[in-house]
From TrEMBL:
<feature type="domain" description="Peptidase M16 C-terminal">
    <location>
        <begin position="192"/>
        <end position="367"/>
    </location>
</feature>
<keyword id="KW-0645">Protease</keyword>
<dbReference type="InterPro" id="IPR011765">
    <property type="entry name" value="Pept_M16_N"/>
</dbReference>
<dbReference type="InterPro" id="IPR050626">
    <property type="entry name" value="Peptidase_M16"/>
</dbReference>
<dbReference type="InterPro" id="IPR011249">
    <property type="entry name" value="Metalloenz_LuxS/M16"/>
</dbReference>
<keyword id="KW-0732">Signal</keyword>
<dbReference type="Pfam" id="PF00675">
    <property type="entry name" value="Peptidase_M16"/>
</dbReference>
<keyword id="KW-0862">Zinc</keyword>
<protein>
    <submittedName>
        <fullName>Insulinase family protein</fullName>
    </submittedName>
</protein>
<dbReference type="InterPro" id="IPR007863">
    <property type="entry name" value="Peptidase_M16_C"/>
</dbReference>
<dbReference type="GO" id="GO:0046872">
    <property type="term" value="F:metal ion binding"/>
</dbReference>
<feature type="domain" description="Peptidase M16 N-terminal">
    <location>
        <begin position="36"/>
        <end position="176"/>
    </location>
</feature>
<dbReference type="Pfam" id="PF05193">
    <property type="entry name" value="Peptidase_M16_C"/>
</dbReference>
<dbReference type="GO" id="GO:0006508">
    <property type="term" value="P:proteolysis"/>
</dbReference>
<keyword id="KW-0482">Metalloprotease</keyword>
<dbReference type="GO" id="GO:0008237">
    <property type="term" value="F:metallopeptidase activity"/>
</dbReference>
<feature type="signal peptide">
    <location>
        <begin position="1"/>
        <end position="20"/>
    </location>
</feature>
Length: 441
């Protein structure tokens, strides 16, 4: 009884925190189609200015991959009014920091400044959109930067090409079949005019969302947003091409050789539905049951109890059009990738045939409450969540309501979704092994 009361108290406490953290916001459009979201929080003298563009790796051509990620670098080169090499100097000289990141679906830029520098931040982001300098010097410079990033993070990293190996085997027609960083030979072959055309097509106000979050005066912010972003011309609306993959009805088997490893890795992947679906959120919960922390089913069984693996895990890689549910493990001693997969399959069958216990269900709910609180615990996190909720889900208020979806997921749904997506004939089994000749794939 005492444990039950403690569990109940923890759940109520987390629920209270989650409710108290409701994110207030205001949203509107400029005449040029730029969507603007304002979130005021005066708890600290900090303001985040961010712009998310609806362009990612999936918007590239098969022979020109890596463009979206390349622009994440290229658009820090400078503008008509910000000299080359001065962007970061201006930010740091004014007490700020900034960064950017790219996915298959979108590209995101942001600055964090003391709140008295909001006008500067808005001017800089409007400059990036209105007056970017895209010339051969910048392209050549950033080409070398991206190549070095690829060498460090992927080519020379043990198991660095797992995502590439999975994607190219799991997707046959969708652009998700290539990686965000792309292929260097594609960037080498591209002409300056191709980079300029990419910018003109995707970096337009009606393909973006601007978020201002933190300590600021809304009326003043609106005036600055109008002054700096209002004059930017609306672009030709981006028409997204639809790609539909045929269902996987027979297991796909593939091999990838990695010259940087000595231990083979078990990799098992299922293609899953869009992040916009309820099923994707159920799969998030299934991932948590199987591999979230040392008390999860797979870790406890395979690593702790049976000592069959050095590491084992699973995660639901959610995206706008499709997702990937990836399971992986490193066998230990005389164990093999096949023996690890057998253990994984046993746990999946349990999820498909048995309801998880009420205790495990409550633990799961508590975990997701905690994750929700943490994701909105900083102004930076709130800014990105607001942008993603609008751009990828079409609903800004999802930042407040998504936790209710997770709360409403039942034990029965967990069992049914496991039955629906996690079957042996619906997956990729990848043998990720040491390279025999130490040659790069």
């Amino acid at each position: 009884m005492k444990k039950s009361l403690m569990t109940l108290s923890a759940a109520l406490l987390l629920g209270g925190i989650a409710s108290a953290q409701k994110v207030a916001f205001e949203e509107y459009n400029l005449d040029n189609g730029l969507h603007v979201i304002l979130h005021q929080d005066k708890s600290a003298p900090v303001v985040v200015t961010s712009v998310m563009y609806h362009v990612g790796a999936k918007d590239e051509q098969p022979n020109r991959t890596g463009f979206a990620h390349f622009f994440e670098h290229l658009l820090f080169e400078g503008t008509d009014n910000i000299a080359r090499g001065e962007w970061f100097k201006i930010v740091t000289a004014n007490g700020g920091n900034n960064n950017a990141n790219t996915s298959d679906d979108r590209t995101y830029y942001y600055e964090v400044f003391p709140s008295n520098n909001l006008q500067l931040a808005l001017w800089m982001e409007s400059e990036r959109l209105m007056h970017p300098v895209i010339n051969q010097i910048g392209v050549d410079t950033q080409n070398e930067v991206v190549k070095e990033e690829k060498r460090l993070r992927i080519d020379n990293q043990p198991y660095g090409n797992i995502l590439k190996a999975v994607k190219q085997n799991l997707f046959k027609v969708h652009p998700y079949r290539w990686t965000t960083i792309g292929e260097m030979e594609h960037l080498d072959a591209a002409k300056l005019e191709e980079f300029q055309a990419f910018n003109k097509k995707f970096y337009i106000p009606n393909n973006a969302v601007l978020v201002v979050a933190g300590d600021f005066d809304p009326a003043q912010a609106k005036e600055w947003v109008k002054n700096y972003f209002g004059p930017i011309q609306k672009g030709t609306p981006v028409v997204k091409q639809k790609f539909e993959e045929a269902p996987i009805t027979q297991a796909i088997k593939a091999t990838w050789e990695d010259p940087n490893i000595q231990i083979p890795m078990m990799v098992c992947t299922y293609r899953t539905p869009s992040m916009k679906t309820r099923d994707a959120k159920v799969l998030d919960m299934i991932s948590s049951i199987l591999s979230d922390g040392k008390s999860s089913r797979l870790y406890k069984k395979v690593v702790d109890d049976k000592k069959m693996a050095l590491q084992i895990g699973a995660f639901n890689y959610t995206q706008e059009d499709y997702g990937m549910y990836i399971l992986y493990g490193l066998p230990m001693g005389s164990n093999t990738t096949e023996s690890l997969l057998k253990e994984v399959d046993e746990e999946i069958v349990k999820l498909q045939t048995e309801l998880i216990s009420e205790k495990d269900y409550q633990k799961l709910q508590n975990n997701f409450e905690s994750q929700y609180v943490n994701s909105n615990a900083s102004i930076e996190g709130i800014a990105e969540n607001l942008a993603s909720s609008y751009l990828l889900h079409g609903d800004v208020n999802l930042i407040n309501t998504e936790i209710d979806i997770y709360r409403s997921i039942t034990r029965e749904e967990i069992r049914e979704v496991a039955k629906k997506y996690l079957n042996p004939n619906q997956r990729l089994i990848l043998d990720y092994v040491p390279a025999k000749d130490k040659a790069q794939n």
